[in-house]
Design goal:
The structure is a single chain. With 251 residues, the protein is an alpha+beta fold. The protein has a domain at 101-249: Protein Transport Mog1p, Chain A (3-Layer(aba) Sandwich), CATH 3.40.1000.10. Helices cover 27% and strands 26% of the residues. It contains four helices and ten strands. The chain has helices spanning 38-75, 123-128, 162-173, 234-246; strands spanning 104-106, 110-113, 119-121, 135-139, 148-156, 182-189, 192-202, 208-218, 221-229, 248-249.
């Protein structure tokens, strides 16, 4: 139990916010002598001019009518006017606020909730990396670079009482070096008595960290629950408190 030293996995503080125009009227030409065809010629010319002018004017009017018709059809108001108002209100509105309780983590005969979206259940990654845990959650993307973590170990009590487990547990916690343990008052973990220890100092990687660890037994299984963060990290402590408050035995 607690052969893997959670104190050896230090968290690190992250640092990081678009006209139509008309023609003038024409005047008739003066009368000409009957034996001359000049008048006829002039008349024919004038008539031709009038005809041409009439065609031109007619063409302008027709084109104007077409333009007016096209313009009218283009500018007709649509039957359904567009609106900026959505036709239906969305049923579910997104929110940036995390839901109360967070994601549930299920371990051996217990469950607890992640305190917020910044926390992740990385049990599989931690176990694959060689740290034997029953469950492990991290504030961040990895155990090594996370801001804080909670590691839970579980093993058979083999008939031993909580008191009989204490000395071996404390010895295993300090086997990786670091500062001495400070015993704290006993705690209550969802109805089970638990021992608590605490230490603060520099770990093997040279990082200054703070750790509180609980030991308890439930239904012949002994549990070691380690909470690790940088010293004086109030937000991490609030996350730890939320996990403790949500802890529940499921059998």
């Amino acid at each position: 139990m607690s052969h893997q030293d959670p104190y050896g996995n230090p968290p690190q503080q992250p640092y990081g916010g678009g006209q139509a125009f008309g023609s003038a009227p024409g005047y008739p030409a003066p009368p000409q002598p009957p034996r001359k065809r000049t008048g006829l010629i002039i008349g024919a010319i004038v008539a031709a001019i009038v005809v041409v002018a009439g065609l031109v004017i007619g063409g302008i009017v027709l084109l104007g009518d077409d333009d007016d018709k096209n313009t009218s059809s283009a500018t007709d108001d649509p039957t359904d006017e567009p609106t900026d108002e959505p036709s239906e209100e969305p049923t579910d509105e997104p929110t940036d606020e995390p839901t109360d309780g967070g994601t549930e983590v299920l371990g051996t005969n217990y469950t607890y909730a992640l305190p917020g979206p910044e926390w992740q259940d990385l049990t599989a990654d931690i176990t694959a990396g060689g740290t034997a845990v029953d469950s492990g959650v991290v504030w961040g993307d990895s155990l090594e670079a996370g801001r804080a973590n909670v590691l839970v170990e579980a093993a058979s009590a083999e008939g031993a009482t909580l008191e009989e487990q204490r000395d071996a547990w404390e010895a295993n916690l300090t086997s990786g070096g670091g500062p001495e343990l400070e015993r704290l008052p006993d705690v209550n973990i969802d109805g089970e008595t638990g021992y608590a220890v605490q230490r603060q100092g520099t770990n093997a990687s040279g990082s200054e960290i703070f750790q509180t660890v609980y030991l308890t037994i439930h239904q012949e299984i002994v549990y070691s629950i380690a909470f690790t963060s940088a010293p004086a990290d109030d937000e991490a402590e609030a996350g730890f408190e939320a996990i403790k408050n949500s802890w529940a035995w499921v059998s």
